[in-house]
Design brief:
10 helices; 5-stranded mixed beta barrel; 24% helix; single chain
């Protein structure tokens, strides 16, 4: 049906003699359970679609890109959107640009056939498992939660004969657990996107959530230290590394002369490698093609501490006389931006327990209140939400509040240990990493 909808939109574009156009169509389905306390309160099925039009207008050595988003197939709405898109393209001039042409696209499967065939049955079974795991936890009670299965179909067609489609299934979990002791209350309220059913790990995940909720009840303010070793969890690493390394590795940052990475420079410790993999099994952003129709690929960004490769979308590949690496990402408003697909850090040689046993004094941090490092300078400072103090190679007690500050570029040069264990979180497959020379203040 979606293919017929694209045919309809394309027929209106052709009737207007528009030579360079692109149609990006998304058909979404979601199946959701909403919890209040330990029971399912609401069951929902959500279906919607939207399309994004891009039209090009050229003027000498510049190109205008018009972008309009629509969610109605009424002929008058389609005509109105095309008119607006043409208008925007004539007034939005920038560097020379053209849509990608046909190319060889990798063959990867991103949708679980069992979910496609029986989404409600799969969801109901997993909801039952989730609630069972929650009920087995002692000294915590659930307050609110959501569990959702997504099934999205994406189509892309342009005037350069690119005609692609993809289907993806994935999961969303949001769940709050409350712990109470005497008059003290603590709550742990995570939310995560997970691509594969096998990576949900509900038993282990819920147990950890309950432990973190209970740990908050007895957590202490951390001891101030100007230079200490801190283990970042995969969740914390996601917030710390994605925007900083991701931004500085792009062709956009290089073209705008704001990247702090130069090819073949030593930018990190020898034990640090990070890969952008648009084909990563289990990666939320994995797909055979990116938001423009260029093939996704695996790009080794930093290899054993050395910066090896930049990632490009179509625009900045053209500006730098390069080839797109499949790193053109669609934003919510339909625009294409140069950014990462999925980040992967290979596992280290030590288990997390072994890492902890090698630290005389330091911290293991599971979550900050809001870790948002400056993507250009790499500096950050954020309050500890959930963590643990390490003394003489053992977890001594939980910590919260206090502040951790440092610089991401310096951190990756001070990478001490990397764990064998890794975890999928949305578009990341990350281990635990211990960094030296960070500052903790109370």
């Amino acid at each position: 049906m979606s293919s017929e909808n694209i045919d309809l939109i394309e027929s209106y574009l052709k009737s207007r003699n528009i030579e360079e156009y692109e149609i990006y169509f998304i058909d979404r389905k979601a199946y959701e359970s909403i919890f209040l306390k330990n029971k399912v309160e609401i069951e929902r099925e959500i279906k919607d679609f939207e399309y994004i039009l891009r039209i090009l207008s050229h003027k000498q050595d510049q190109t205008g890109v018009g972008i309009v988003k629509g969610n109605s197939l009424d002929p008058k709405e389609i005509e109105r959107n095309i008119d607006m898109c043409i208008l925007y393209s004539k007034h939005n001039l920038s560097s020379k640009y053209s849509f990608p042409s046909q190319s060889s696209i990798p063959n990867i499967i991103m949708a679980d056939p069992k979910i496609i065939n029986d989404p409600l049955g799969i969801k109901n079974d997993l909801v039952e498992d989730l609630l069972k795991e929650v009920q087995q936890q002692k000294d915590v009670v659930p307050t609110f939660g959501r569990f959702r299965i997504h099934n999205n179909k994406t189509f892309l067609r342009n005037s350069n004969s690119v005609d692609l489609n993809s289907q993806k299934t994935y999961f969303f979990i949001e769940f709050s657990l409350k712990a109470q002791k005497n008059e003290k209350l603590a709550e742990y309220w995570p939310f995560i996107y997970i691509k594969e059913k096998d990576d949900l790990n509900l038993s282990k995940r819920v147990e950890k959530w309950a432990e973190l909720a209970k740990a908050s009840l007895v957590a202490k303010i951390p001891i101030p230290e100007k230079s200490t070793t801190i283990i970042f969890s995969p969740r914390v690493l996601q917030s710390a590394l994605n925007d900083v390394i991701g931004e500085n590795a792009t062709g956009k940052a290089y073209h705008e002369k704001i990247s702090l990475f130069n090819l073949n420079d030593n930018v990190a410790s020898e034990n640090f490698t990070i890969i952008d993999d648009g084909l990563l099994k289990g990666g939320l952003n994995s797909k055979a093609w990116d938001g423009e129709g260029s093939p996704r690929q695996r790009s080794e960004i930093i290899v054993r501490g050395v910066f090896k490769k930049r990632i490009y979308d179509q625009k900045y590949a053209m500006l730098e006389d390069e080839i797109s690496t499949g790193n053109g990402n669609r934003t919510d408003d339909g625009a294409v931006v140069n950014g990462i697909s999925n980040f992967e850090i290979p596992p280290g040689e030590l288990s997390l327990d072994e890492m902890i046993s090698n630290i005389n004094s330091g911290y293991l941090l599971e979550q900050f209140s809001w870790l948002m490092p400056n993507p250009l300078s790499g500096t950050f400072g954020s309050e500890i939400r959930n963590g643990f103090y390490i003394k003489n190679g053992k977890i001594e007690y939980p910590v919260k509040l206090g502040n951790v500050s440092g610089n991401i570029f310096q951190m990756i040069k001070n990478c001490k240990f990397i764990s064998k264990e890794r975890e999928f979180l949305a578009n990341n497959l990350f281990p635990y990493i211990a960094f030296e020379d960070l500052t903790v203040s109370s």
